[in-house]
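$ ./design --mode recover --in tokens.txt
reading tokens...
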């Protein structure tokens, strides 16, 4: 990010900018507010010559005039037949982006998004004057952040936590054997399902041979009560609200038929189980490894918690004006992504989602706005820190971040990398990593204590945890990237 523009005057005042080299184009900048400026640009008509020539050439290729070969129509004939105004319009549309960009660069502005351009004067063979209002990154003063103090959860692993982890592993190695009795809690039943809405069987409401563990809560509400007590061959009908599919959210009459009842059998917790489920020879070694894994996971959670709380404290220290147009665009993008991507995949619309969440539309709008403001402020502050601390991103860091993003997206690293390059997203990924490093700098300078009052030294973790912590810091600002790298043309 470039430094704040030295050419920008106080609000309401205009300050002229010197001509660009030996050219006679003039521009001036007026500060409308801390995040928006108005550029006033005066262009002598001779500066439009190249664009006028291009306009005549383009029109020449598009029109036919009797008596002239295509592409060889004189300019005076084009003016007579089609009007000089059409040529001027084409030339101005071609020239405006160039003159706007030159004015932005001359003033050293860090613009955001597209400008609102207004041609204030266009005199044939005399002059072109226009204004361009555009949002800019605000000047941000980063205060001393070394005094930030936050509290995080202590890393404490109880014996019960280890026992639970081992029990979950034991569940994964359970076996089943068919039984000839009514189904009970914990049994695995094989079932056929048929769902009807208003008496009609849904095209996507029929399924056969579905394996379901009673009490798991993985299927429809009410199915546990329906199948308990049924033997193989038995069936029952119940009503339930469908969670997905073509009739998501609607009440359905569901018929379930049990084709098999199987009892789950857990292996004994002994050394044989440890050898079956892991690379360890004894149950004690397995439990020790489970404890270590839990500690690593809690340390990662602790580091993530520290980053989130340090970031909140940092944002409280910095005054960050937010461009209103950028904010509205960000809110609109967040709503669109939620409605058309996330909820669409779940078979929900916004109204149903709000009903499930127990929120009004006004509460949802206020929450979305708050999240968007925080995202934009986070990006601005961390970008300024990247500059202040002179942080760079090397190829190894970028590759590691790309690998992790690919994994979370469900794509192979090669596929993800290709999509990133083709979509022009490399600067976005670089920005995410750089902001992650900036946040890590602040966390390192802050005092982090756990709920026991002990100082937490996040540098004391092993390499794998440190890598995950660094990546979590990068992800902490990824939500704000929708407004990144928006230095745009007219």
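writing sequence...
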């Amino acid at each position: 990010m470039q430094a704040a523009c030295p050419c920008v005057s106080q609000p309401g005042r205009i300050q002229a900018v010197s001509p660009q080299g030996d050219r006679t184009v003039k521009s001036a900048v007026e500060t409308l507010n801390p995040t928006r400026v108005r550029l006033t640009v005066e262009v002598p008509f001779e500066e439009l010559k190249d664009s006028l020539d291009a306009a005549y050439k383009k029109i020449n290729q598009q029109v036919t005039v009797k008596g002239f070969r295509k592409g060889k129509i004189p300019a005076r004939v084009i003016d007579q037949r089609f009007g000089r105004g059409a040529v001027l319009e084409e030339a101005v549309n071609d020239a405006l982006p160039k003159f706007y960009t030159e004015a932005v660069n001359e003033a050293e502005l860090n613009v955001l998004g597209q400008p609102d351009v207004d041609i204030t004067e266009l005199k044939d063979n005399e002059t072109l004057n226009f204004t361009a209002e555009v949002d800019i990154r605000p000047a941000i003063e980063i205060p001393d952040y070394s005094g930030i103090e936050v509290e995080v959860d202590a890393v404490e692993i109880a014996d019960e936590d280890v026992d639970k982890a081992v029990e979950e592993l034991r569940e994964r190695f359970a076996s089943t054997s068919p039984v000839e009795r009514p189904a009970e809690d914990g049994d695995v039943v094989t079932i056929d399902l048929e769902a009807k809405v208003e008496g009609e069987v849904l095209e996507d409401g029929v399924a056969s041979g579905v394996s379901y563990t009673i009490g798991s809560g993985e299927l429809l509400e009410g199915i546990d009560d329906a199948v308990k007590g049924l033997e193989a061959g038995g069936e029952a009908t119940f009503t339930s609200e469908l969670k997905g599919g073509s009739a998501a959210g609607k009440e359905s009459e569901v018929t379930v038929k049990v084709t098999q009842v199987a009892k789950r059998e857990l292996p004994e917790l002994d050394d044989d189980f440890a050898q079956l489920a892991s690379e360890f020879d004894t149950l004690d070694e397995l439990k020790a490894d489970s404890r270590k894994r839990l500690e690593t996971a809690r340390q990662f959670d602790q580091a993530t918690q520290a980053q989130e709380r340090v970031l909140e404290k940092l944002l409280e220290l910095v005054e960050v004006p937010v461009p209103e147009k950028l904010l509205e665009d960000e809110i609109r993008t967040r709503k669109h992504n939620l409605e058309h991507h996330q909820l669409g995949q779940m078979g929900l619309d916004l109204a149903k989602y709000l009903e499930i969440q127990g929120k009004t539309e006004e509460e949802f709008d206020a929450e979305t706005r708050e999240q968007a403001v925080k995202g934009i402020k986070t990006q601005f502050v961390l970008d300024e820190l990247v500059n202040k601390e002179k942080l760079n991103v090397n190829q190894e860091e970028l590759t590691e971040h790309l690998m992790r993003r690919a994994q979370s997206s469900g794509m192979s690293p090669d596929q993800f990398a290709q999509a990133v390059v083709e979509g022009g997203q490399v600067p976005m990924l670089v920005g995410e990593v750089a902001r992650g490093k900036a946040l890590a700098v602040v966390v390192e300078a802050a005092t982090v204590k756990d709920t026991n009052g002990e100082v937490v030294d996040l540098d004391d973790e092993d390499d794998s945890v440190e890598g995950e912590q660094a990546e979590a810091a990068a992800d902490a600002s990824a939500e704000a990237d929708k407004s990144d790298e928006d230095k745009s043309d007219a």
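exit 0
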